[in-house]
Amino acid sequence: MAATLKDVAARAGVHPSTVSRVLRKQENLKILDTTRKRIFDAVKALNYQPDFTARALRMKKSFTIGLIVPDIGNPFFSRITRTIEQLGFEKDYTVIVCNTDENQAKEDRYVNHLLSRGIDGLIMVPAQDSDESINKVLEHKVPLVLIDRLFENIKTNAVISNNVESAYNAVKHLVDLGHKKVAFLRGRNNIYTMTKRFEGYQKAVDEFGLVKSDSLIVGNGFSFNDGYDATTELLNCPEPPTALLLTGNLITVGAISAILAKGLKIPEDISVVAFADSIFSPYLVKPLTTISHPLYEIGSKAFNLLLEHIESGEEELPPTQIMINTQFDIRETTGKAKAA
């Protein structure tokens, strides 16, 4: 017969409630280290396994949260996912990770699945083709935190970056180097993040009197091929840009590959600034000038915000939006504009 909580308590010489609080890692629990050790020794000796189903029924919680991301292979999302998973583990929550591939139908299906499992809360980066799944989560009154992207017409918790300012500062840096023709390689143009980065780019173009042309705004995807094809299109123009502002990790790899395939040098022939979060950016043959995100901070703030709403119980807290500052690192892929 499997050992029970009472068996552990009897072996450790404590009350069952003490065992429960220790195993739940209750904060601010005042207990001697020797007592804590006796409890864990008893758990090990008896091979005790907590009954999470009974616990969930008793506490009306599943101790499970959902995490929906567009591309787990993207360093931006994978490192945020790693942070949330680790924090969930430390707080005794199971994190169910779902990858949508930027597909709205997959997102809708995952949301339905997670809601049917009785998750306590959801963190997600929406595909943004529709707000239907967001509204469904809110209708079920399940705590929700969005990361990186939001719907401006829906009030909900979110952790986002200062994309307008970040893109503006990147273009200003290029202007200071004498660049007048800066191209913008966007991801999907319906994504909140991209619209804000484009807003910052346009603000700088207007303010500094740069060349303004629809032909300098290219791309509509986040893959290597999207970056490669969009950059090739730009470089084949009769008067190509002297600098590129890239808006994603895989877009950046594709763009640099296209530049090298043309036999051009960075930054002698063309300068590159990228929104990129690869840990390898500083260590490339030409260390990359980047706008990067504090990914651990983004993941931890999203998790803690969700936990705050989960643990508020019946009290409905007002939505909170947290703005995170990016980091601009000037390295070796930006230089003075090539003389005409």
From TrEMBL:
<dbReference type="InterPro" id="IPR028082">
    <property type="entry name" value="Peripla_BP_I"/>
</dbReference>
<dbReference type="GO" id="GO:0003700">
    <property type="term" value="F:DNA-binding transcription factor activity"/>
</dbReference>
<feature type="domain" description="HTH lacI-type">
    <location>
        <begin position="3"/>
        <end position="59"/>
    </location>
</feature>
<keyword id="KW-0238">DNA-binding</keyword>
<keyword id="KW-0678">Repressor</keyword>
<protein>
    <submittedName>
        <fullName>Transcriptional regulator, LacI family</fullName>
    </submittedName>
</protein>
<dbReference type="Pfam" id="PF00532">
    <property type="entry name" value="Peripla_BP_1"/>
</dbReference>
<dbReference type="InterPro" id="IPR001761">
    <property type="entry name" value="Peripla_BP/Lac1_sug-bd_dom"/>
</dbReference>
<dbReference type="InterPro" id="IPR010982">
    <property type="entry name" value="Lambda_DNA-bd_dom_sf"/>
</dbReference>
<dbReference type="InterPro" id="IPR000843">
    <property type="entry name" value="HTH_LacI"/>
</dbReference>
<dbReference type="Pfam" id="PF00356">
    <property type="entry name" value="LacI"/>
</dbReference>
<keyword id="KW-0805">Transcription regulation</keyword>
<keyword id="KW-0804">Transcription</keyword>
<dbReference type="GO" id="GO:0000976">
    <property type="term" value="F:transcription cis-regulatory region binding"/>
</dbReference>
